[in-house]
């Protein structure tokens, strides 16, 4: 094919062997199931109730047995040929177990009726089980499996709060928020009243009770963790289209759970430090917990450890492992550990540390283990979390008695902390003097201190930067002892200032791109409108991209700054679309759990596990494989940019979009989502790193100010982005809806130019999220290249004529957009 044949002509050209389509193929669906099995976490297994022995009889309780949630809603939804719930998965294991079918018939009929009445998966009501049916089930077996499901989606949070002033709330979002409030009176973190009644009935009548959690993130686990009447629990999360089969196979021992938690599961919602002010205001969120997010809070702050039910990095197996640290130290020394560098000089400190670990399967079943390495830094003047993850590796499958040596490495600079107030050196990453202790194990708590510690006699400045994203209105932040320090205050920013006046809010939500009129031209004269060249002359090396851009008019340039109408299978609009210059219209597609194509197109793609479940694999190889498969489906359907991965931090269990995100920890996020980017772009299509940044709440997401310290922003909320930008070079980054310390993320020059480009060296394209409230010309000036789903060319032109934006600034963004298009084949 010629360059852009797919993009321009959308032919149905399969990418599989022997002319077969890969989209929704058996191979991709099998990969989805295997990824789900790899990430599901065995939380509890008293008396080895799991795996179920051959010939077991089971009774299935809970609407979640049939009301299966493959993934979250909104842009994370996927059109699939089918989904397999737990009952269907277990039905395929009938050579191993048998099911009490009469109870299943009851649940099936009830859920089908609720679906007919308009309820969506995960938003149904737990039905009452007739006592007669309960007694029949008890007579059939002494083993019950309870399935609990949860659903959330884009645009609404798990605490059922409706914002009456939100003019951009879609009907679907309002409906889901109202439904959640109806079903879950205390929020869906906890069991509903009906679920509690069902659980109590099951515990009373069955000797062996197994719990399956078909959820998108953190929920209450204390109700089974401490109850001896419930022996086993599997965190199955949202496993994609084959999630029910994946869980069923693990239950019967076809595979061994090897997932580990990527979030801390606390006793109550109030135990998370983010809860108290999550819904404090519709206008802002104060990130007063600062760097103490997730396990950094629970393992550090006095009195917090006792609130934990299941710690970060935790997960059981059907076998047992011995994890022994063989050696640890400096792998590649550059400076002696006892550095004599002046304390306020930035130095190139490139020591690489390592631990070598022997993992032995001491049990009777084959399985995998995850080795985790944590650093305990000196508290110093800045204060630090008690432990921070610096490296991890999952073993291969080890058979009984088999061992594997794994070597884990990281750079000493990775342990630096950011000083935003100048306690040591302002706006610098600092290694404070003291002992950097190393802990090795299989969760943040199940660790042993290594014999080696990295010692610094003096403070080391590893990187000198300048202040960015400085808060004006964040009054205080948490310290490592649980107290708070006051932060400097300054004049708040005028967020909505604009030289062209404020836009009508009705024009900023759900607006399709305008159709641009193109004057007729003679084919014999070529397609070039104003100059001698078209884009193919750039492709063929006859002219540079700069020369090509210089011949475009200001109107042409501004046109390229906005989203373009859908063609082919797309429903999220396109990029480019200037046929008079040979520039194709490149289509985009939502993610992250699969390529999202509207049902009316008639194309079913593969629904992969939700991002949190992929993170729980702790296995970059399988996540990269998922990325490669998804990217191939994107390409086969003539789409050029996949709007994934989403990597915002799980600051709070309440965030309705956590299922799209990876973890409470930026390092796990960076490693796993980086593998996703690598897999996607191996197909020569683009991945989109989103939502940049601090998009940790959906309620009033377009006008809520994330008020955060510069240190927390850099160490927690931007760190995964930084890792992936530097290691994987994603072709696109999507700026987020929210405001950050007074500036909209899409208009934030500190973020999009100062940090992303100047500090991290990013050269790719930045797009807005779809229909931000940002002013288009201000976004362009800040370094946000593309306005989606549509641009506002008249407003940008008016700002240009008033001198508020220059042609050079516009050209800079257009060049990055065209560079993206040029990468595609």
What does this structure look like?
The chain is an alpha/beta fold and about 800 residues long. The protein folds into three domains: about 40-255, Glycoside hydrolase family 3 C-terminal domain (Rossmann fold); about 310-465, Sandwich (Immunoglobulin-like), CATH 2.60.40; about 585-790, TIM Barrel. About 25% of the residues lie in helices and about 20% in strands. It is built from 22 helices and 30 strands. The strands form eight sheets. The chain has a six-stranded mixed sheet with strand order 1-6-5-4-2-3. It has a six-stranded mixed sheet with strand order 22-23-24-25-27-30. A four-stranded mixed sheet has the order 8-26-28-29, with no helix packed on it. α16 (about 665-680) links the parallel β24 (about 640-645) and β25 (about 685-690). The protein is globular and about 85 Å long. Mean pLDDT is about 95; it is low at about 335-350.
Distance between the termini: 9 Å
Q: State the secondary-structure class.
A: alpha/beta
CATH homologous superfamily (4th level) name of the largest domain: Glycoside hydrolase family 3 C-terminal domain
Would you identify the regions where 5 or more consecutive residues have pLDDT less than 50? Answer: 336-348
Q: Determine Rg (CA atoms, Å).
A: 27 Å
- Beta-strand content estimate: 15-25%
| Largest sheet: spatial strand order | 1-6-5-4-2-3
**How many individual β-strands?**
30
Report the CATH topology name of the largest domain: Rossmann fold
- The number of helical elements comes to 22
Largest sheet: 6 strands, mixed
Global morphology: globular
**Number of domains as seen in the coordinates:** 3
**What's the architecture of the largest domain, going by CATH?**
3-Layer(aba) Sandwich
Give helix % range: 25-40%
CATH class of the largest domain reads: Alpha Beta
Q: How much is the average pLDDT?
A: 94
